[in-house]
Amino acid sequence: MNNKKKFALIAALSLGLVMTACQNNTSKDNPSNEPSVTQSSKKEDKSSTSKEDNKSNKDKDEKEGEKKTEVSLSDWEGEWNDMGGYLDKKEIQPAFKTLAENEKIDENGAKENYLKKRHCDFGGLRIKGDEVEFLNDFPDKNPELKGKGVYKFVGKQEVEHGGYKMEWDIFEAKNEDAPYKYLLMMPIHGEESLTHFHMRYGDDKDKLLQEEGWYPTFVKPSTTDQQIIDEITE
C-alpha cells in the first residue's frame, strides 16, 4: 500500500471516531431533556396546588373564627326578671344576715352594698331576635313597657375585676329612640344553681366598661326564693 492510500485510510478512520464521539457527547448532554422538563412541570403544578390548598384552608379557618366570635342578642332570647325585684321580699331577708357574717360587716351595710351592686332601673326584659323590651316589672305581672330598642353586636371587651378576667359582649342601638345606646352583656351562666346573666346599660360605653361593682342581674321567671338566697350567701 502506497503512502497516499495509508494517509487516506487513517483520515477516514479518524473522522469516524470524531463523529461517534460527538454523537455520544450530544446524547450525554441531553439524554432525557423532555422527561426532565415534564417532571419539573409536575413539581411546579404540585407546589402551586399546595399553595392554593393552604390559602383555601386559611380562608376557611378565618371565616370559622369570625363565626365563633360573632354574637347574637338572640343568645339571651326570652323573658327575664330583674334580680333586684326579689331583694326586698320578707323571705329573702335572712340571707343578708348571713352575708354580713361572711363579710364581717353589719347587716344593714351588707344589704345596702348588695342592693347597690344589683341596682337596675327596670324590672324585667323581653328579648326576641335583636329587639329588647324594657319593662317596669316582671314580665308575668302585666308590666308597662318603659322602652324598646333594636341592637347590633359591635364587639367584645375583656376587663379585670377582683383579680378575675371577664368579657362583655357589646351591643349598640340601631334605633335613635332606644332608651339606652349601649348594652353590655355577659353570657348566661349558673345553670347548675341559678340561671342568670349580668348586663349593663347606658350611653357611654367607656364609662360602663370602667364601672366597678355594678352588676344588674337577670334571672328566669321560674327562679325560687331559695335560689336567690343561695346566690346572695354563696
Largest sheet: 8 strands, antiparallel, barrel
CATH class of the largest domain: Mainly Beta
| Mean pLDDT across residues | 81
How big is the Rg?
Answer: 40 Å
Determine the CATH superfamily of the largest domain: Calycin beta-barrel core domain
Question: Percent of residues in helical segments?
Answer: 40-55%
Unreliable segments (pLDDT under 50, ≥5 consecutive)? 1-43, 61-68
Q: Biggest sheet, strands in spatial order?
A: 1-2-3-4-5-6-7-8
Number of domains: 2
Q: Could you tell me the number of beta strands?
A: 8
Query: Topology as H/E string?
Result: HHEHHEEEEEEHEH
And the CATH topology of the largest domain? Lipocalin
SS field, number of helical segments: 6
Shape: globular
Keywords: Signal, Zinc
Biased composition (Basic and acidic residues): 41-70
Protein name: Metal-binding protein ZinT
Biased composition (Polar residues): 23-39
Give a quick rundown of the structure.
The protein has six helices and eight strands. It has 234 residues and is of the alpha+beta class. The longest helix has 37 residues.
Task: Chart the SSEs and their pairings.
Blueprint: H1 3-29, H2 33-69, E1 78-82, H3 94-103, H4 107-118, E2 124-128, E3 131-135, E4 145-161, E5 164-173, E6 182-185, E7 196-202, H5 205-210, E8 217-219, H6 225-233
Antiparallel strand pairs: 1-2, 1-8, 2-3, 3-4, 4-5, 5-6, 6-7, 7-8
Helix pairs in contact: 3-4, 3-6
3D architecture notes:
Mean pLDDT is 81; it is low at 1-43 and 61-68. The N and C termini lie far apart (126 Å). The chain is built from 6 helices and 8 strands. A hairpin with a 2-residue loop joins strand 4 (145-161) and strand 5. It has 2 domains: 35-70; 73-233, Calycin beta-barrel core domain (Lipocalin, Beta Barrel), CATH 2.40.128. It has helices spanning 3-29, 33-69, 94-103, 107-118, 205-210, 225-233, and strands spanning 78-82, 124-128, 131-135, 145-161, 164-173, 182-185, 196-202, 217-219. The longest helix has 37 residues, at 33-69. The protein has 234 residues and is α+β, with helices and mostly antiparallel strands. An 8-stranded antiparallel barrel has the order 1-2-3-4-5-6-7-8.
